[in-house]
Amino acid sequence: MPKPDAIDPYTWQDEFTLVLKASPSWQLDYGIKLALSGKSCRLWTKNAPGIDAFHPSRPFTRGSGNLLPRAETDRILALLSQVRLSASACGDLGCDGTTYQLKVVRGSMSIDLEWWEGTMPKGWVGLQPLIEVLEDYCSKYGQRPDGGQDAD
Predict the structure, then answer these.
(1) Which residue, 4, 60, 132, 141, has fewest beta-carbon neighbours within 10 Å?
(2) Containing H/E element for 102?
(3) How far apart, in whole angstroms, are the C-alpha atoms of residue 50 and residue 43?
(4) Do 130 and 79 form a contact (C-beta atoms < 8 A)?
(5) What is the C-alpha radius of gyration for the chain, rounded to an integer number of angstroms?
């Protein structure tokens, strides 16, 4: 029987979907979706951070998505494998700011978390490195009002 704190690490043999959505006040919501399947990881985006609410919102990109490089996928897998969450986490509530939602689906299991602003609930701080990477991807790959992206 495994130890109570043991966790199966994420590997390239897994299939999973991870979605981060952010809904800031007075700006368009944005997000990123990653899907690992068949030895490749694909990425889709919805808007980019920092676009004011007067621009039309875009849905998540369609099609086969962008192929995420193997090194970046390994980074995501390592971060996911290190996360430990507390079911009794306490967070802050607010009015103006950003609401975040993270959903991870692995096989028939899923977890859906939601929190307000940059104040991650104390029992969820292990997610912070993963969220920072995903936020970076939103900025790098997110759709701009002119139809472009910030990717290099």
Answers:
(1) 4
(2) strand 98-106
(3) 20
(4) yes
(5) 16
